[in-house]
Amino acid sequence: MSNSDVAAAPGETVHKLRGMRGMIAKHMQNSLQSAAQLSYHADADITALLEDRSQRKAAGQSLSPEVYVIKAVSNALLQHPEFNGIAEQDQYRLNSSHNIALAVSVPGGLVTVTLRDVQQLSLEEIAAQRTDLLQRAQAGKLEAKDMRDGTFTISNLGMRPIRYFTPIINAGQISILGLGKTLTVPVLADDKSLLVQQHLPLSLTTDHRIVDGDPSGEFLQTLIGQLSAVSAM
Fold it and tell me: Exactly one of 15, 98, 199, 208 is catalytic; which is it?
């Protein structure tokens, strides 16, 4: 038994961090050790977004809500380019290409797949590229190029009963956006009438060395506006 081995107590089994799980553990630990990470939480009213999705579905076009989020993030990055790039020790590089990485759960762990040049894509083109990457990820047919060069990451836990969380930045990047479970929320309008809205919980983690709290709040405000104004997509 080596010095690093841990003996199992009665009733326990010992599992080493190896393979994909080991790579994920090292990646996440490196990220936390190399960046000053801080998370911010907010809600976006996506009532109109979901209505637009329903109308498209009725017309034969099926779009995941995540597709809208990807496009909204890209639109927000056009106004806040400091969130899109790579951090390297005492410097960082901003990228004009919005290479949006998606965290994808696969058997045995987690991978990120990269949608490239999202700023140039329509919702339909984003949907096609996303579907292709997700299908190949689940089939274990991703290539190395499919998982690199991301400049901003989205992690979606909306299929679980999770509202907010503190996503860990993909090592080397500046920002990551977490998506929680959409909730039906009663809202009191200005005229005192009661509205029913669909709210998407957002969790933004940024590298505080590069972007402070106020710019992070501005980014979230812009993103919320993009998600509410579906016509802008």
Answer: 208
